[in-house]
Design brief:
By secondary structure, the chain is of the alpha+beta class. It has 2 helices and 8 strands; from the N terminus they run βαβββαββββ. It has a single domain (about 5-20, about 35-139), classed as Thiol Ester Dehydrase, Chain A (Roll). The longest helix has 19 residues, at about 55-75. The protein is elongated.
């Protein structure tokens, strides 16, 4: 799954970062992103169908969970383990295969041992398809 870090969160800003090579390739010691946000562009192929032409809800949950965990791990202290405590999904519209989606995940609460993450999945036309939240333990 290719991913890009985004401070702006818009499709244009992410594409500009990709094209100009301004995406950080590694995290510097002690560095936290100014906005703890991860943006992912993912292609939904036919191998993840629940019904013909539609992504399976479990695969959508996997994309959501993985992206929120990535946002948490990138913002946890070095060497910390991040463990899921809960995952809540709100499927707003179907996600059709054969399309790209834009996934934004961010931390909206950070304490030493607990993070709370949120996520939106959008079509490339900026139509919201999924909302999710997760509670995460940091050890």
């Amino acid at each position: 799954m290719p991913f890009a870090f985004s401070w702006d969160g818009s499709t244009d800003a992410c594409i500009e970062q990709l094209n100009t090579g301004k995406i950080p390739t590694e995290r510097l010691p002690g560095f936290h992103f100014s906005t703890p946000m991860v943006t992912v562009f993912d292609y939904i192929n036919e191998n993840v169908c629940g019904h013909p032409g539609l992504i399976h809800g479990g695969m959508t949950a996997t994309i959501a969970h993985t992206t929120m965990m990535l946002a948490a791990v990138l913002n946890a202290r070095k060497g910390a383990r991040v463990i899921s405590k809960s995952l809540n999904m709100d499927y707003r519209k179907p996600i059709y295969t054969g399309n790209f989606v834009k996934v934004h995940a961010w931390l909206y609460e950070r304490e030493e041992k607990n993070f709370k993450a949120a996520l939106h999945i959008y079509s490339l036309e900026d139509e919201m398809l999924v909302e999710a939240t997760s509670s995460l333990a940091v050890e």
